[in-house]
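Predict the assembly for these three chains.
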Amino acid sequence: MPELPEVETVRRQMAPVLTGATFEAVLQVEPFMLRDCSADEVRRLLPGAGVADITRLGKFIVVRLEGDAGLYLTLHLGMTGQILLLPTPGRAEGLPAAAAVGRADDGEGRRHAHTRFMFRLRSCDGVPVLLEFRDARKFGRLHLTTGGPAPRLFGLGPDAWQGEWDVDHLAARLAGRRVPLKAFLLDQRYLAGIGNIYADEILWWTGLSPLRQAGTLDAEEVDRLAGEIRLRLGEGVRRLGCTLSDFVDTEGRPGTFQERLEAYGRQGETCSRCGETLKRVVIAGRGTAYCPGCQR
DNA sequence: CCCAAGTCCTGGTTGC
DNA sequence: TGCAACCAGGACTTGG
């Protein structure tokens, strides 16, 4: 599941390749996954547009385009989305076999079954670049807007990892909330970027139960929570994301955060901190693993 | 058939 | 009582 660290990993790889590049052709569009515009508008507005910069807010990748129109291309990877760049510098040699999925086709011109969008750009060096958006489950989204960023972004809280928020912000948003703490962390209106995996990990490291009512945390607990949010997301970024089944970077390579999971998906296993058996509950409709022994 | 999950949407509840 | 904020749960998607 692409959460903040996975999305940041992809953004970091997109930025050097695509910044300064120009869209030349729209090769494929999945209308179902489009927001804020039609397929015709994508085909009309994008060709000729140059990439000014690529930023991220929460789980959204924001491609700002040059020109006076205020054109923005905004991507969300949903739960199985992948961005692949071809060719990518350095991908020719020394990559693991998984890199084979990085191909835009099977080598004989047949496109991958889950390709939803495909664009051809030309880099500032004049090199052609294919930008492919694959997504088996079609939860991913592509917004194209003029006159400013996608409206969807304005409903988000500050970026959970790099945002300006501090302990006071977190305390203020927690105050009075009766939702379970896990549901609070998943709510992108408070902090943007935390998903199911990192929510479970953050709570395990903080030693707080996912079932705790959000508004019942004391000052010291809020402080710990704020610290662990930045720490765990930072570790995820450093490890190039978490690959359980689908996530790969723009060259088709998995991340390594999955090797460090303490809670997520480990129900029935032993807690490495206290030895209790990790338990599974459902919170906010999401599978949640935690330790009833040391998460309070 | 059920499960996985992020976001959107709906309808019911709470509290000022 | 009115109303907005809050909260729970279902829909959507498709591969395992």
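The longest strand of chain A covers residues 115-122. The radius of gyration of chain A is 20 Å.
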